[in-house]
């Protein structure tokens, strides 16, 4: 079997987090989340980012409009959809028209290869299905886009009727598909099976680029993906952290690390971003990255056994398959990507703050960050709060205002209806700007809105530019789930001035207080950025 | 091993949950937990249960005493330890004496096969290491126990010096080891590598039984285990749910299901216990079984996509690799805006509510669900709220209490420090239970805690069982239909009565009101479940 490693063959990475990943239970992205993930995956060096299904919903349509104006440095965005419908010419098909209208340079269309799926799920003839595939691919190619053909249920179909499954692939290949991605849709196949079938298929259609798309239902998604590459596939589909329907897709990050570190392939230039990307996407989904995620999880290089720990002290290779630093992770349990001095200096630099040549100060900041992370803070998406923290240590922080106190009152009466709207909130804050003291009361539907309104009133006279600073997202996480409503709450706010976006974070046992502190950071950092 | 061996090769299952599993971060078992797990694994049909390290701690010594008096129907218990120490004769070694004193019918000893490990970690000669292995195995065999030899770091050792690694195995084999289990200790190997090495080793020592022990550091533990079986191994080590050091061991349950359902092997007679065993052991560890665990997780057969859901209604094989019933799990159709009538009826049934034969009512409920989902509700994880909603439509809902009004006050003063603690919350609620009216005030660090306390006070006299209902998770998500702090907030609460867990959801522009409504649903559904 193809164990031998060849050096530097590039394997195309195709990320489906925003489409297939969102099929996972409990996973949903806002439009802003999706755009931030695109930015991050692009910076990481992912080749293709599947953005969504523009024929299906307004959020995805807006996504393709917004993403078209982004300056991506490397990645191409793919729009996902189906072949034309049965009995409809490709150029008449509204679904294909929507895909083209998305403006995405790559269009991925899913089509059937399993005779039973054609007759029972699609309810058409085998010939018509081949026509749909051929016409759809060739029409899309004629319109100037790159076409990826997702061969749904391919492995089951090939098992049931290999000749027909291959006929469908041949149609897609002849029509000009740039890649044919074999989908192990139900996730039940084992590695040896995948290896054999991909070997046969790549030999049957020489010169055609093949990709692989696996699900983890038999616990083999990563292995199946690697076996497909060993058998000749050169494009790998997956999702960040393996998010996806049922038990999820192949974890693209694990696949990338395995291909690059263990199979001598090339996927990305900077593998040290791996852990950061994993945590970033998990944060966007508001889920915790499972600690036992290979390479990127908090426990991935954590050691507990006394036997192991003492051997480790002699040499790390004793119980570590790779260096944690190679994938941006750390030996033992560390809270975030900011664990080392060098990464803090790098991060500060990206925020416009120079920490070079000040090792003692860096250590002091790192200690502060670690203490706060131990208390529940997470700076992974909160660059605004991190910048303010660093500035406080640098002595360059100049708070624009200071709080004396606030009081929030929420009143509610019994209500009915899907969206209750009758609660009222009122916030009174007492604030100092320089020598002046302001008392302002804001109303709002919710308590954070009331605080926000009060804050804007109180400082609006001194800082009229606060009107340009707008909260765009507000996330809340409960950190210690075992203690119910008294658990520690982490609030993360995303704020925009129309051009830049920044995150801020605060932690408290009181959700209102955590919200207030994150809100203050968001406005403070906004004013600081504006040079006020 | 029963009738199945006539047609299917039996693969010996070796569970290491109680020893290697406990090396996992956050995993620990009490003595009682360990005994209950032994009982459960025995009933499930596991062949060998590794109980612990009797030379290392009093808990494990007590375990072997207690387990000796249990009437196990099938499983044999193994005691785990090391070979004799360097320079010590096997019969003089206190560690081996402890293993024998445990009374376990199987003794598993770990030994080194990697020359570098011998010289650097063990700090002895290659010859002395072979002597330690040979003498230890043959002494233990002479004392009447079955011996499993765990060949630590075998794959790395074989890569570095295959002749030496094989020499160690040959010593164990000649000394009478009943099984030699090849350990992929660092977890970094890939399936094709495992297949090749196990093939070579089984050919080099024909007639010897081999086992396999894998870790998941490259995301391939299950696949590596299966490949070893394909290459000739007939004993599989693993842990329930893959618990274990770093990213964990091969999940023995997934391995068993794959071997039995997909590779035609026999492991256990009743695979429908699989999901129950997974949840039982997770409960013993006080951790939640990850929803995306293959076969046994809550999401393993959950479907969300509209495309998939409609095809599933035609035939389940469309998007399921195996029948969920085969492994004691169940199909779940996630109710979401994509779902149809059939899935609502199925979902209601799983909640104990019969909607069959009432198409108009189903349509009415579906319209309500869709309207609520359009307003931001999500019933994917909120079974409790969905059940209450269906009951309201069925006319079987009997609210245990109704709200007249609440008022929440949060006070804060300026503070510093990583975790602010000085805010105070107070909630006053006015509630009716039947004809009685209760006014109660609760305090809390946060406003939701204050409301929760007030609610428990107000209804505690009428429903003392509310004390058994506990909030275990509380999630907040800001939906981006509008921006900023007046955005719509979705609160999802997970509640437990110690046995069952349910989710509730509410949506409001006011985070406090949404929290309140989700809290009310959580208590209401809890009381309803209890039949109050």
Automatic annotation (TrEMBL), chains A, B:
<dbReference type="InterPro" id="IPR054691">
    <property type="entry name" value="LeuA/HCS_post-cat"/>
</dbReference>
<dbReference type="InterPro" id="IPR036230">
    <property type="entry name" value="LeuA_allosteric_dom_sf"/>
</dbReference>
<dbReference type="InterPro" id="IPR013785">
    <property type="entry name" value="Aldolase_TIM"/>
</dbReference>
<keyword id="KW-0808">Transferase</keyword>
<dbReference type="GO" id="GO:0043714">
    <property type="term" value="F:(R)-citramalate synthase activity"/>
</dbReference>
<keyword id="KW-0412">Isoleucine biosynthesis</keyword>
<feature type="domain" description="Pyruvate carboxyltransferase">
    <location>
        <begin position="11"/>
        <end position="275"/>
    </location>
</feature>
<dbReference type="Pfam" id="PF22617">
    <property type="entry name" value="HCS_D2"/>
</dbReference>
<dbReference type="GO" id="GO:0003852">
    <property type="term" value="F:2-isopropylmalate synthase activity"/>
</dbReference>
<dbReference type="InterPro" id="IPR002034">
    <property type="entry name" value="AIPM/Hcit_synth_CS"/>
</dbReference>
<dbReference type="GO" id="GO:0009098">
    <property type="term" value="P:L-leucine biosynthetic process"/>
</dbReference>
<keyword id="KW-0100">Branched-chain amino acid biosynthesis</keyword>
<dbReference type="Pfam" id="PF00682">
    <property type="entry name" value="HMGL-like"/>
</dbReference>
<dbReference type="InterPro" id="IPR005675">
    <property type="entry name" value="Citramal_synthase"/>
</dbReference>
<comment type="similarity">
    <text>Belongs to the alpha-IPM synthase/homocitrate synthase family.</text>
</comment>
<comment type="pathway">
    <text>Amino-acid biosynthesis; L-isoleucine biosynthesis; 2-oxobutanoate from pyruvate: step 1/3.</text>
</comment>
<dbReference type="InterPro" id="IPR000891">
    <property type="entry name" value="PYR_CT"/>
</dbReference>
<dbReference type="GO" id="GO:0009097">
    <property type="term" value="P:isoleucine biosynthetic process"/>
</dbReference>
<protein>
    <recommendedName>
        <fullName>Citramalate synthase</fullName>
        <ecNumber>2.3.3.21</ecNumber>
    </recommendedName>
</protein>
<dbReference type="Pfam" id="PF08502">
    <property type="entry name" value="LeuA_dimer"/>
</dbReference>
<dbReference type="InterPro" id="IPR013709">
    <property type="entry name" value="2-isopropylmalate_synth_dimer"/>
</dbReference>
<keyword id="KW-0028">Amino-acid biosynthesis</keyword>
């Amino acid at each position: 079997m193809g164990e031998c490693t060849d050096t530097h063959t590039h394997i195309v990475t195709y990320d489906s987090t925003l489409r297939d990943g969102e099929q996972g239970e409990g996973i949903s992205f806002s439009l802003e989340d999706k755009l931030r993930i695109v930015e991050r995956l692009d910076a990481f060096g992912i080749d293709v980012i599947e953005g969504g299904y523009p024929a299906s919903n307004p959020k995805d349509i807006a996504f393709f409009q917004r993403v078209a104006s982004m300056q991506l440095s490397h990645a191409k965005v793919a729009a996902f959809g189906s072949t034309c419908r049965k009995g409809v010419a490709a150029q008449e098909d509204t679904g294909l028209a929507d895909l083209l209208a998305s403006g995405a340079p790559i269009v991925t269309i899913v089509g059937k290869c399993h005779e039973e799926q054609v007759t029972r799920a699609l309810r058409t003839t085998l010939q018509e299905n081949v026509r749909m595939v051929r016409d759809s691919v060739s029409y899309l190619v004629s319109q100037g886009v790159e076409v990826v053909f997702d061969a749904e249920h391919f492995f089951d179909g090939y098992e049931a009727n290999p000749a027909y499954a291959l006929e469908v692939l041949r149609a897609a290949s002849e029509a000009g598909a740039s890649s044919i991605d074999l989908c192990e849709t139900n996730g039940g196949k084992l590695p040896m099976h995948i290896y054999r079938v991909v070997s046969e298929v790549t030999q049957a259609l020489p010169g055609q680029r093949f990709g692989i798309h696996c699900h983890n239902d038999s616990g083999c998604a990563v292995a199946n993906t690697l076996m497909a590459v060993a058998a000749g596939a050169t494009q790998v589909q997956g999702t960040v952290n393996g998010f996806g329907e049922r038990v999820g897709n192949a974890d693209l990050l694990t696949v990338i690390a395995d291909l690059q570190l263990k199979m001598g392939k090339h996927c990305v230039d900077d593998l040290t971003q791996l852990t950061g990307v994993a945590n970033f996407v998990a944060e966007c989904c508001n889920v915790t990255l499972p600690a036992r995620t290979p390479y990127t999880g908090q426990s991935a290089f954590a050691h507990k056994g006394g036997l192991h720990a003492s051997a480790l002290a002699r040499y790390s290779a004793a119980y570590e398959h790779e260096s944690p630093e190679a994938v941006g992770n750390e030996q033992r349990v560390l809270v975030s990507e900011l664990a080392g001095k060098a990464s803090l200096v790098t991060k500060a630099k990206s925020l416009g703050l120079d920490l070079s040549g000040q090792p003692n100060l860096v250590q002091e900041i790192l200690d502060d960050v670690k203490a706060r992370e131990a208390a529940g803070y997470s700076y992974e998406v909160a660059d605004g709060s991190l910048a303010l923290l660093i500035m406080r240590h640098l002595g360059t922080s100049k708070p624009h205002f200071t709080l004396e106190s606030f009081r929030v009152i929420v009143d509610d009466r019994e209500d009915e209806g899907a969206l209750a709207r009758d609660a009222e909130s009122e916030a009174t804050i007492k604030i100092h700007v320089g020598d002046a003291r302001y008392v302002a009361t804001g109303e709002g539907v919710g308590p954070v809105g009331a605080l926000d309104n009060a804050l804007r009133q109180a400082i609006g006279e001194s800082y009229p530019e606060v009107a340009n600073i707008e909260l765009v997202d507000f996330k809340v996480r409960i950190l210690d789930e075992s203690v119910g409503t008294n658990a520690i709450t982490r609030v993360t706010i995303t704020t925009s001035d129309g051009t830049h976006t920044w995150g801020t974070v605060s932690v408290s046992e009181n959700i209102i207080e955590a919200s207030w502190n994150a809100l203050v950071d968001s406005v403070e950092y906004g004013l600081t950025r504006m040079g006020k």
